[in-house]
Design goal:
CATH architecture: 3-Layer(aba) Sandwich
Number of helices: 8
CATH superfamily: P-loop containing nucleotide triphosphate hydrolases
Number of domains: 1
Bound molecules: adenosine-5'-diphosphate, guanosine-5'-monophosphate
Order of helices and strands: EHEEEHEEHEHEHHHEH
Structural class: alpha/beta
Shape: globular
Length: about 190
């Protein structure tokens, strides 16, 4: 059976990747969303099984041992990983799927599925705007904010390997650009 496209969206934390991914999924109900597993605490408004599968460290480590993950990374002191059971919803049904993963996760997806993956990197207009957005989101304390910002240089460097780059300055314009990419590749 032919498979759809595996579209990975990555960005430094606070760039707007989740906001953009949700807008694209709302425009394209034919695209599935890969619900990742994580050990980070649930945020206000998040739903277990929809935004993430929120696992304990032990549960996550058991998933690693069982071979239940396509890829996983330790990010900001927590585990995040793509479940085989999620990706099979696309692979087994010829559907396209979107992944909200970090840069390393996106590159792992490309290594596993070189012909079928498309990597989109969302860039901030500049660091000041990024810091402002992260602070305004009100999900981080001083320590977790610092951890997220410390990772930005590595993320911007790895972003050079992505297939497409979109600067998220004006949100509607960024969504429109990602939408153009998605329409082109589907
Ligand atoms: P990420 O998933 O990349 O960490 P989010 O989607 O959570 O980022 O966005 C971070 C914050 O910035 C959210 O509060 C979101 O509403 C806001 N945001 C996203 N894009 C823009 C934009 N273009 N202009 C202003 N605020 C934005
Ligand atoms: P957040 O805590 O802000 O939801 O996510 C932190 C980072 O983890 C983001 O870069 C997000 O894309 C990434 N992430 C979420 N799920 C996965 C996953 O399954 N695998 C990898 N490698 N990264 C993930």
């Amino acid at each position: 059976m032919s498979i759809g496209k595996l579209i990975a969206i990555s960005a430094p934390s606070g760039c707007g990747k989740t906001t953009i991914a949700k807008a694209i999924l709302a425009k394209h109900p034919e695209i599935l969303f890969s619900v990742s597993a994580t050990t980070r605490p649930i945020r206000n408004g998040e739903v277990n099984g929809k935004d993430y599968f929120f696992l304990t460290k032990l549960e996550f480590e058991n998933r690693i041992k069982d071979g239940g993950l396509v890829e996983w990374e330790e990010i900001y002191g927590n585990y995040y990983g793509t479940l085989k059971s999620e990706i099979h919803k696309a692979l087994d049904n010829g559907r396209s799927m979107m992944f909200d993963v970090d840069v390393k996760g996106a590159l792992s997806i490309r290594r596993n599925f070189p012909k079928d993956s498309v990597l989109v990197f969302i860039e901030p207009p500049d660091m000041e705007v990024l810091i402002e957005r992260l602070k305004n989101r009100k999900t981080e304390n001083a320590e977790t904010l610092k951890r997220r910002l410390d990772r930005v240089p590595m993320e911007l460097e790895q972003g050079s390997q992505f297939d497409f780059k979109v600067v998220n300055d004006d949100l509607d314009a960024a969504i429109a650009q990602v939408d153009e990419i998605v329409k082109k590749i589907l």
